[in-house]
Amino acid sequence: MIPTPEQAYALVCDYNEGEFHRKHARIVGDVMRWYANELGYGAEADFWQTVGILHDLDFEQWPEQHCTKEQELMREKGIDERIIHATASHGWNLTVDIKPKHEMEKVLYAADELTGLIGACAIMLPSKSVQDLEVKSLKKKFKNKKFAAGCSRDVITSGAELLDWDLDTLFERTLAAMKASGNVD
Questions:
Q1: pLDDT tens digits, one per residue of 50-66
Q2: Which has more pLDDT, 31 or 182?
Q3: What pLDDT, in 10s, does the model give residues 78-102?
Q4: What is this structure's pTM?
Q5: Over the chain, what HEC string results?
C-alpha cells in the first residue's frame, strides 16, 4: 500500500503526540514534494511527500530504535517496501546500514537535518520567519558547530556529496523549499 500524504500524516499522528514531531513531518513532506517537482519527478510528488512525512514515524516513541522500529510498524500496515527503504535510509551510518540509493532517498538524507538547521536559524531572526533567512546567514550558522548542535553537519555534507551537489546548492534549494511550505512559520 502507498498511503496518500493525508493518510501518512494520520499515521504519524498515531505514533507522535508532540506537535514538534508532527510539524517536522509536515515540513519535511513539503520539502520532499518541492524537490520532486524541482528535480523532474512531479508525477511522483505525492510519493515523495509521503516518504518525507513518514521518515521519523518511530522517533518520538522509540528514539533508540529510530529507522528500525518504523520498518516494523510500516510492514505491519502493509506499506510499500519502497517507502520503508526510503524512510529507513535517512538513518544511514547513524542507526542503520541502509544506504540511500534513489535520488529521492539522497534528498531526504541531506534535507532532513538541514530543515532543522534552517528552522533554528529562522528562530534567531527578529521576524522569526524562514522567509527572511538568507543563504549567507545559513552558511555562517552551519560553520558554527555549537549552534543547533543536534543538526549533524556531517550528515548534511555527506548528503550533498551523495547528490553530487555542493553545499551552496543544497542550502539554496532546501531553503527555497522551506520558504514554499505552508507549514513553516
A1: 999 999 888 887 778 78
A2: 31
A3: 999 999 999 999 888 777 788 999 9
A4: 0.92
A5: CCCCHHHHHHHHHHHCCCHHHHHHHHHHHHHHHHHHHHCCCHHHHHHHHHHHHHCCCCCCCCHHHCCCHHHHHHHHCCCCHHHHHHHHHCCECCCECCCCCCHHHHHHHHHHHHHHHHHHHHHHCCCCCHHHCCHHHHHHHHHCCCCCCCCCHHHHHHHHHHHCCCHHHHHHHHHHHHHHCCCCC
